From TrEMBL:
Database matches in InterPro entries: AB_hydrolase_1, AB_hydrolase_4_sf, AB_hydrolase_fold, ABHD4
Any single Pfam family the record assigns to this protein: Abhydrolase_1
Entry's family note: Belongs to the AB hydrolase superfamily. AB hydrolase 4 family.
UniProt-listed PANTHER family: ABHYDROLASE DOMAIN-CONTAINING PROTEIN (PTHR10794), ALPHA_BETA HYDROLASE 1, ISOFORM A (PTHR10794:SF63)
Protein's recorded name: AB hydrolase-1 domain-containing protein
GO molecular function, one term: short-chain carboxylesterase activity
Domain AB hydrolase-1: start-end pairs: 108-228
Tree of life domain: Eukaryota
Length: 375
């Protein structure tokens, strides 16, 4: 009896704490000038005005991150793999979802560190209606027939490493080649958006900054971007976060093992043995050999973020959630907050696209399939 009372009291206290302190609206930063792209888009993004309520019991950052990796259901999706040749002789694998007729949205996905099209956080991005992953989006009637493609970085997933050159958080040349090609193929018949996860978000942000108005994309969503790698590095080397550091190093060691025949041709690795690299004491020592030295960096750089002076950026910061994990509701293994955010952004982007761009798309595709008709 006493145990039941204690448990009941604990549940009541947690419920009070949850209702009073857990759910909060995201902090939102964007250019407030009237008529700016960001201001217009923000008005069409209700998710940025709603409180984010993490799954009860999973309001801790580390629990969110862990369950985001192992708790979300991996959905079987049919892919068609394209071998995309690069100008320097390298090769990337592009995994395309099998789209239905005349998809109105082409979504280019950039994975995180050592991610791939098999990553759970990627498989919950909207895909064509006949895939089971899209059921929750169809219920809300906001995702209609997306064509998705996962851009694998050099050597990631099943992608081979054809030349002795690695990828890193600042390498945008490969992304530019792929985005140019995809826009040539599908830009005339669909909206093209890009979604970057973690490291992929940083690559995408740098690509957008370098290309500016020349970027071959109508809009982009960046999720869990590290932004400041020095600060992130310090956090990963402290306390319980060191576990993430060890896991990342384990994954990177697997990358080294798979591609050692190519990697050993890089000058800074040419006099090293495989065991020398695998036994490096930390992830940051490994990063020095795979990213900093091979690509000629003097040191790790600190990116500069300017939001409120740029009319094309909306920055949202939630008080809770994990890395690539904004789990909400009791069925957290299905849809997450970030999935809804991506879809809402695409829908808002449609409403703000220049008329000449929309007219170009509608003259080629069947207008009855447009998501604008179901807004």
């Amino acid at each position: 009896m006493a145990l039941e009372v204690v448990l009941g009291l604990a549940v009541a206290i947690y419920a009070l704490y949850y209702l009073c302190f857990v759910g909060k609206e995201p902090e939102v930063y964007h250019c407030s000038r009237e008529g700016s792209v960001a201001a217009r888009l923000a008005r069409d993004l209700p998710i940025l005005k709603e409180k984010f309520w993490p799954t009860p019991g999973l309001d801790n950052t580390h629990l969110q991150t862990l369950l985001g990796v192992v708790g979300r259901r991996r959905v079987d999706i049919e892919f068609e793999t394209e071998c995309f040749p690069l100008a320097d002789g390298g090769e990337l694998y592009l995994d395309w979802t099998v789209a239905a007729k005349d998809p109105m949205v082409t979504c280019v996905i950039l994975h995180g560190t050592q991610g791939s099209s098999r990553s759970r956080y990627i498989r919950h991005v909207p895909s064509p209606p006949h895939d089971s992953i899209n059921r929750q989006f169809l219920r809300k009637g906001v995702a209609q027939n997306w064509r998705c493609v996962v851009l694998h970085q050099r050597g990631c997933g099943a992608s081979p490493l054809r030349v002795p050159k690695t990828f890193h958080a600042g390498l945008t040349a490969d992304t530019k080649e792929v985005m140019d090609a995809i826009y040539r193929r599908h830009g005339a018949t669909s909206q093209v958006i890009a979604v970057g996860f973690s490291l992929g978000a940083n690559i995408l942000a740098k690509y957008l900054g370098e290309e500016g108005s020349r970027a071959k994309v109508d809009g982009a969503v960046l999720l869990s971007n590290p932004w400041d790698f020095c600060s992130v590095g310090e956090q990963l080397s402290q306390g319980s976060s060191r576990l993430y550091c060890r896991l990342l190093q384990y994954e990177m060691n697997g990358y080294v093992r798979r591609h050692w025949d190519q990697l050993r041709q890089i000058e800074c690795l040419s006099k090293k043995q495989l065991d020398d690299i695998l036994s490096l004491p930390s992830l940051f020592d490994l990063d020095m050999y795979l990213a900093v030295l091979p690509h000629g960096f003097a040191d790790r750089s600190v990116p500069v973020r300017v939001v409120e002076d740029n009319e094309n950026i909306i920055f949202g910061l939630t008080d809770r959630g994990g890395h690539l994990a904004w789990l909400e509701g009791w069925d957290f293994w299905e849809e997450a907050w970030m999935d809804r955010a991506v879809v809402q952004f695409s829908k808002a982007l449609w409403s703000q696209m220049p008329k000449r761009r929309l007219q170009k798309i509608h003259t080629i595709t069947d207008p009855t399939t447009s998501p604008l008709r179901h807004a």
